[in-house]
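=== RUN LOG ===
request id: a7f3
mode: sequence -> structure
chains: 1
length: 161
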Amino acid sequence: MSSINETRLPGIGTRFDFVTQEGAKVVLINHHSGRCEVLLCSKEDPDACREVMRLAKEDVRALAEILGQTQITEEVASKRLSLQGLAIDWLPVDEKAPCANCSLYDIEHKDDEAAAIVAVIRGDSTIAAPPSAFILLPGDIAVVVGTPRGVETLATLLRGS
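=== RESULT ===
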């Protein structure tokens, strides 16, 4: 991921800039009013702008929502999400886990905590709402929903430590 530089512009807003993988410099000026300018600068002369795109406040919101979707998805996938006593986590199944090669029925009956495996990611496939006879294999990623304590208990069973 590219390094993003942030510069406060007194009376104007904030300037963000970074260099793309191809070497072009991208500058974004976020005005206090909500308006935004996106500048694409030359690889040869980073102070010379090839293109300037001016966005109204509503355009900025629409673009941020589109671009933010991937970031939000990545953040949720890499962190536990807890809402009102409900926890969701993506837990990898270790080959030494006591639950590797067990059915979901057997796994969910190994503890008394409130949590369930609601989906399994296996390679490039996602199995939503797998049946209780589904066998969890090492390398699978179990999507677990339940109380924070229940999710942690299942995490221990899936880790193998």
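=== NOTES ===
Residues 70-82 have pLDDT under 50 and may be disordered.
The helical segments are 57-78, 104-108, 148-159.
=== END ===
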